[in-house]
């Protein structure tokens, strides 16, 4: 279930490799696909989301544009370090509308999720929303 | 305000003046390397260019790559995925101009899905008596490949800033197009 934005649940973007002050990384977790974070050139690009507490995640949905190779890593530490790889995918190119991809994480526990974009379909890529489906308890 | 980053690949035949130009950029036009020392591998230089009339800037990561054929294979591994092309030939050497198509093909093979904007630079414009390539011919060729054309003299420090500013402006324009595009996208 996606009820509310990640930011309203206390999540934060703690690292982002690029920043345009008009399109800050907070836009990734505000639950709104019309606001976005954009890279400002070169690959790889990455951002890290920190959850308010350790969270069991069944799937994550990424709304983006021009992202080609996407790697996701996670950890269960209070610090943004020592990540383990979760998945690596090649996303399909879209034109005129956003890419929307749901990636299954099989209920793994995480305090941080790290998204690494290793290549794109253009010089610049954007991420409009990341939302998380929690395991129902 | 935004700071963009571009990987800019500096290529062309050996001894056309790629390193002389890149040292000129790096020293803001104060240092011309008088003795020739062939670049055997790649050299990385970083140059930040301010876009006039904006608060934006572009950081160019200039990869100065050896021009000598026997060394190119080894250097190619370091090229990565370039954002911009900086192609140089020697105005006093017709063969160095003729090589430009080969260089372009070679670099394009590294670009994957990305388009590759850039500049063509005829260097050594101070040696006018020995000129072998007419400006109009070079200009025409550049245009047909989607490149902007500039003539420079690293030795006389003439016009060296122009190609850099051109590259930065081009990349900045691409970024603005990208932003406009995604602001008008529908949901996935």
Compact overview of the structure:
The complex is a heterodimer of chains A (137) and B (188). With 137 residues, chain A is mainly β.
Question: Secondary-structure map with pairings?
Answer:
The complex is a heterodimer of chains A (137) and B (188).
Chain A: E1 12-16, E2 37-38, E3 45-65, E4 67-75, E5 84-90, E6 99-120, E7 126-134
Antiparallel strand pairs in A: 1-3, 2-7, 3-6, 3-7, 4-5, 4-6
Chain B: E1 3-11, H1 18-26, E2 42-50, E3 57-65, H2 69-76, E4 84-90, H3 94-98, H4 100-108, E5 118-123, H5 135-144, E6 147-151, H6 161-183
Parallel strand pairs in B: 1-3, 1-4, 4-5, 5-6
Antiparallel strand pairs in B: 2-3
Instruction: Give the structural class of chain B.
Output: alpha/beta
Number of domains of chain A: 1
List low-confidence stretches of chain A: none
Instruction: Calculate Rg of chain B over CA atoms.
Output: 17 Å
Extract low-pLDDT stretches of chain B. none
Specify the biggest β-sheet of chain A.
7 strands, antiparallel
The topology string of helices and strands of chain A comes to EEEEEEE
Strand content of chain A: over 45%
Estimate percent helicity of chain B: 25-40%
Number of strands of chain A: 7
**Strand line-up across the major sheet of chain B:** 2-3-1-4-5-6
GO molecular function, one term (chain B): GTPase activity
Subcellular location (chain B): Cell projection, Cilium, Flagellum
Family (chain B): Belongs to the small GTPase superfamily. Rab family.
Organism (chain B): Zoarces viviparus (Viviparous eelpout)
Task: Describe it.
The complex is a heterodimer of chains A (137) and B (188). Chain A is mostly beta strands and 137 residues long. Chain A has a single domain, classed as Jelly Rolls (Sandwich), CATH 2.60.120.260. In chain A, 0% of the residues lie in helices and 55% in strands. Chain A is built from no helices and 7 strands. In chain A, strands 1, 2, 3, 4, 5, 6 and 7 form a 7-stranded antiparallel sheet that branches. Chain A is globular, with a radius of gyration of 14 Å. Chain B has 188 residues and is of the alpha/beta class. Chain B has a single domain, classed as P-loop containing nucleotide triphosphate hydrolases (Rossmann fold, 3-Layer(aba) Sandwich), CATH 3.40.50. Chain B is 34% helix and 24% strand. Chain B has a 6-stranded mixed sheet, sandwiched between helices. In chain B, a hairpin with a 6-residue loop joins strand 2 and strand 3 (57-65). Chain B starts with a strand and ends in a 5-residue tail after the last helix. Chain A binds chain B through residues 18-23, 33, 36, 38, 40-43, 63, 65-66, 68, 93-94, 96-100, 119-124, 126, 128, and chain B through 1-7, 58, 61, 81, 83, 112-114, 171, 174-175, 178-179, 182, 185-188.
């Amino acid at each position: 279930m996606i009820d509310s934005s990640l930011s309203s649940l206390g999540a934060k973007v703690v690292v982002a490799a690029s920043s345009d002050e008009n399109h800050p990384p907070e836009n990734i977790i505000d639950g709104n696909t019309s606001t976005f974070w954009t890279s400002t050139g070169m690959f790889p690009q990455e951002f890290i989301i920190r959850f308010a507490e350790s969270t069991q995640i069944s799937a994550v949905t990424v709304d983006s544009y021009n992202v080609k190779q996407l790697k996701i890593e996670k950890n269960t530490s209070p610090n943004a370090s020592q990540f383990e790889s979760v998945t690596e995918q090649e996303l399909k190119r879209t034109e005129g509308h956003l890419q929307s991809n749901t990636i299954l994480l099989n209920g793994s526990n995480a305090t941080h999720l790290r998204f690494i974009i290793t290549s794109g379909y253009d010089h610049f890529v954007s991420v409009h929303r990341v939302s998380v489906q929690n395991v129902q308890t | 305000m935004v700071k963009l980053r571009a990987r800019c690949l500096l290529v062309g035949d050996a001894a056309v003046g790629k390193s002389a130009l890149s040292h000129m950029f790096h020293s803001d036009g104060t240092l011309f390397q008088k003795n020739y020392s062939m670049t055997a591998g790649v050299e990385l230089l970083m140059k930040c260019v301010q876009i006039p009339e904006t608060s934006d800037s572009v950081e160019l990561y200039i990869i100065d790559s050896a021009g000598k054929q026997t060394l190119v294979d080894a250097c190619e591994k370091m090229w990565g995925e370039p954002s911009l092309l900086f192609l140089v030939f020697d105005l006093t050497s017709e063969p160095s101009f003729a090589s430009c198509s080969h260089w372009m093909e070679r670099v394009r093979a590294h670009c994957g899905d990305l388009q590759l904007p850039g500049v063509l630079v005829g260097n050594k414009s101070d040696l006018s008596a020995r000129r072998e390539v007419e400006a109009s011919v070079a200009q025409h060729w550049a245009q047909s490949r989607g490149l902007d054309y500039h003539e420079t003299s690293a030795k006389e420090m003439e016009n060296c800033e122009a190609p850099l500013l051109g590259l930065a402006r081009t990349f900045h324009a691409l970024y603005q197009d990208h932003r406009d595009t995604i602001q008008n996208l529908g949901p996935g």
